[in-house]
């Protein structure tokens, strides 16, 4: 057995003294690397992530400044400062875009008097200019979809086939809720699809972009801007100008199919009663 000489004991003590600082340095280095990684991740997120909140220092345009004054007077109690939202009162408006504001405000659905299954259409509280100003303010503080500039319908003299394409797109995408005649219809849980007979072209376009209530969002990857214009052209020229899609009578604006069914039922009823009358006389 090897004897434990004083030299070996001094060597072990020296080795322990060297190893202790080494472990401390490793732990300190790991902590520094972790902190650097967290700082780097936070910096990357701050630089590239989309804004999750409104910027207090954002420079507003003149229209948005007017909209902010209207917002602070009429909307802030439910939607909060800078559109951040208020719990159990109103949602955040960050990211909803000007299109949503234009639809909700121009149709009188907002300001909302109380929480219901669906916001009812009412006479608007703001005129067109004020509505655009509110929409511009929400757009500049949070971004989101907005109604494009320029005409929102198709010039049928230049593209006469656009009406037929718009009718086909309307039947495929809209009739399941709004009906073939655009008169609206009932949905589940007390909700309903509103009538399109009084809707303006901006309201229809904004609704397709924002998807209010139960309506799906029709982004440009679902319906291109040109297809949206074709649908609006069909609604305005065929459903809002009191033109029936065929037939002699306005039976739900479904065309001759409902009239044929009505004539069939009435005719069968007359034949039955006529047969009974003849049988009774004989």
Automatic annotation (TrEMBL):
Spans annotated as Disordered: 1-20
Record-listed E.C. numbers: 7.1.1.8
Positions of heme c 2 binding: 174, 177-178
Compositionally biased intervals (Basic residues): 8-20
Catalytic activity: a quinol + 2 Fe(III)-[cytochrome c](out) = a quinone + 2 Fe(II)-[cytochrome c](out) + 2 H(+)(out)
Major localization class: membrane
Transmembrane segments: 260-279
GO MF annotations in UniProt: heme binding; iron ion binding; quinol-cytochrome-c reductase activity
Every Cytochrome c domain range: 62-142, 161-239
A family per Pfam: Cytochrom_C
Keyword Iron: yes
Domain of life: Bacteria
PROSITE patterns, per database record: CYTC
SUPFAM superfamilies reported for this sequence: Cytochrome c (SSF46626)
Membrane topology, record value: Multi-pass membrane protein
PANTHER family in the cross-refs: CBB3-TYPE CYTOCHROME C OXIDASE SUBUNIT FIXP (PTHR33751), CYTOCHROME BC1 COMPLEX CYTOCHROME C SUBUNIT (PTHR33751:SF13)
Complexes and interactors: The cytochrome bc1 complex is composed of a cytochrome b (QcrB), the Rieske iron-sulfur protein (QcrA) and a diheme cytochrome c (QcrC) subunit.
Name of the protein in question: Cytochrome bc1 complex cytochrome c subunit
Organism of this sequence: Actinoplanes aureus
């Amino acid at each position: 057995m090897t004897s434990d000489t004083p030299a070996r004991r001094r060597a072990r003590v020296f080795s322990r003294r060297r190893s202790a600082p080494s472990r401390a340095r490793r732990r300190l280095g790991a902590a520094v690397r972790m902190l650097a990684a967290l700082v780097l991740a936070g910096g990357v997120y701050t630089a590239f992530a989309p804004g999750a909140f409104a910027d207090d220092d954002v420079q507003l345009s003149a229209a948005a400044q007017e909209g902010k004054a209207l917002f602070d007077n009429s909307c802030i109690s439910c939607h909060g400062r800078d559109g951040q939202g208020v719990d159990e009162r109103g949602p955040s408006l960050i990211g909803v875009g000007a299109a949503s504001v234009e639809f909700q405000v121009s149709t009188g659905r907002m300001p909302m008097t109380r929480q219901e299954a669906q916001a009812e259409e009412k006479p608007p509280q703001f005129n067109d200019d004020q509505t655009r100003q509110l929409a511009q303010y929400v757009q500049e503080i949070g971004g989101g979809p907005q109604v494009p500039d320029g005409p929102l319908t198709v010039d049928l003299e230049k593209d006469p086939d656009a009406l037929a394409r718009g009718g086909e797109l309307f039947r495929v995408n809209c009739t399941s809720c709004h009906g073939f005649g655009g008169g609206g219809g009932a949905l589940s849980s007390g909700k309903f699809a509103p009538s399109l007979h009084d809707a303006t072209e901006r309201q229809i376009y904004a609704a397709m972009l924002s998807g209010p209530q139960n309506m799906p969002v029709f982004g440009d990857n679902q319906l291109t801007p040109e297809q949206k214009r074709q649908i609006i052209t069909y609604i305005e020229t065929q459903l809002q100008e009191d033109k029936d899609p065929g037939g002699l009578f306005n039976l739900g604006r479904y065309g001759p199919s409902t009239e044929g069914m009505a004539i069939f039922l009435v005719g069968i009823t007359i034949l039955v009663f006529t047969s009974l009358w003849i049988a009774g006389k004989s």
